């Protein structure tokens, strides 16, 4: 099927919730994607921080083929070997004691919200129902996670919103202290706000939030859907901040391209989910958890975290060099391979289109921010080529 046929079928039959780029890809390999005409593109978006190992990594392809020939799904009525081994990998590499598997980041965040509430409910405090999040945060597109998201543009069409969510200013500890009360069930943070333009939280603020949660006996939930699995140069972003969350969520890169979400918690909280309190038909199925196991194994064998850290530092330095030569650049932000370039004019989409024509795929936010989320296998040579094309435009 050629591109025009694909486009026609899409426009006739798909609900139009996406503003498509005029592109469709036939295959991928490593950093590269190839359209139906064979043109190659450097993928600096990685499926929105999903394809940590790039495209068609041989270990992932081999393991998934093998698993498809065995069994795809049995439901969680039975023990699932790759689910058990993936949970062990997560727990042994993080502060989590237990894991619940779902299918997406929004689902994982919904589970975290439920776990925080049931913790208080079963401890005799049903009045503790409010979840505090940050303004400009993004936690998903379900009704509850839209309500937890601190961006009005996602919420207006769905009002009245699910009650019980309060949004406070980023990095303002006094504002947070004034908001916490006897009805607070949890505080939920992204340590780098991705969807609003790549905004890292101050380390001191995060540490003060940790102390506040301890003081009030409320769980600190860290949304690691986008920042987790090496995106910031460490396995989990919280490891940059010298704190441990009580509950954290994962998705995106965990499956290397196969849909999966994970709710991870310390035993103090995890034990309050008992049979019947939560569940998922497809969560933790054979295919998704096989993919997750491969991602962990490749991280170890190929030093993916080391590459993400070094390539991220190199990339940020290159962008800062470009910024010195262009009045169009306002600020460079981010950690590891989660980087944003804020512009002084709303030309981000124009720049992204120009780069696309040159064979580079990037993201944009609000017309003023260029967003870079390459696979964690990206090389300095790949980065040089992208930066040369960007510098040429600027």
Description:
With 394 residues, the chain is α/β, with parallel strands linked by helices. It has a domain at 61-301: Type I PLP-dependent aspartate aminotransferase-like (Major domain) (Aspartate Aminotransferase, domain 2, 3-Layer(aba) Sandwich). Helices cover 38% and strands 18% of the residues. The chain is built from 13 helices and 17 strands. It has helices at 3-13, 46-49, 58-68, 81-93, 105-122, 143-148, 173-179, 203-216, 267-270, 286-301, 304-324, 348-357, 380-393; strands spanning 25-29, 32-35, 40-43, 98-102, 130-134, 165-168, 184-189, 192-193, 199-200, 220-223, 247-250, 261-265, 329-335, 338-343, 360-361, 363-365, 369-372. A seven-stranded mixed β-sheet has the order 4-12-11-10-7-5-6, sandwiched between helices. Strands 1-2-3-15 form a four-stranded mixed β-sheet. A hairpin with a 3-residue loop joins strand 16 (363-365) and strand 17. The longest helix is centred in the last third of the chain and has 21 residues, at 304-324. It is globular and about 60 Å long. The model has no long low-confidence stretch (mean pLDDT 97).
């Amino acid at each position: 099927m050629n591109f025009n046929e694909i486009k026609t079928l899409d426009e006739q039959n798909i609900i139009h919730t996406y503003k498509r780029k005029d592109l469709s890809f036939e295959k991928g390999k490593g950093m590269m994607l190839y359209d139906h005409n064979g043109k190659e593109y450097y993928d600096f978006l990685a499926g929105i921080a999903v394809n940590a190992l790039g495209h068609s990594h041989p270990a992932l392809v081999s393991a998934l083929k093998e698993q498809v020939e065995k069994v795809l799904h049995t439901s969680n009525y039975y023990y699932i070997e790759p689910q058990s081994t993936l949970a062990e990998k997560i727990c042994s590499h993080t502060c989590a004691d237990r894991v619940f598997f779902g299918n997406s980041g929004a689902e994982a965040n919904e589970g975290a919200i439920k776990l925080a509430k049931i913790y208080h409910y079963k401890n005799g405090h049903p009045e503790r129902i409010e979840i505090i999040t940050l303004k400009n945060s993004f936690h998903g597109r379900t009704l509850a996670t839209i309500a937890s998201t601190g961006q009005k543009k996602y919420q207006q069409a769905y009002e009245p919103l699910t009650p019980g969510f309060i949004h406070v200013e980023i990095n303002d500890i006094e504002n947070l202290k004034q908001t916490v009360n006897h009805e607070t069930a949890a505080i939920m943070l992204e340590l780098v706000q991705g969807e609003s333009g790549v905004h890292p939280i101050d380390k001191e603020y995060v540490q003060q939030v940790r102390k506040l949660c301890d003081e009030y006996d409320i769980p600190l939930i860290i949304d690691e859907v986008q920042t987790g699995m090496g995106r910031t140069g460490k396995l989990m972003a919280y490891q940059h901040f010298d704190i441990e969350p009580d509950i954290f969520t994962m998705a995106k890169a965990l499956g290397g391209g196969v849909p999966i979400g994970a709710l991870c918690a310390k035993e103090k909280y995890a034990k309050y989910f008992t049979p019947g309190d939560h569940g998922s038909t497809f969560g933790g199925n054979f295919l998704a958890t096989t993919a997750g196991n491969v991602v962990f194994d490749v991280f170890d064998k190929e030093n993916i975290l080391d590459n993400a850290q070094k390539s991220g530092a190199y990339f940020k330095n290159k962008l800062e060099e470009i910024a010195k030569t262009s009045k169009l650049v306002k600020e460079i932000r981010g950690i590891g391979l989660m980087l944003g370039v804020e512009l002084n004019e709303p030309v981000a989409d124009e720049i992204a289109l120009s780069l696309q024509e040159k064979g580079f795929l990037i993201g944009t936010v609000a017309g003023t921010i260029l967003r870079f989320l390459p696979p964690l296998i990206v090389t300095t040579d790949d980065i040089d080529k992208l930066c040369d094309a960007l510098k040429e435009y600027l």
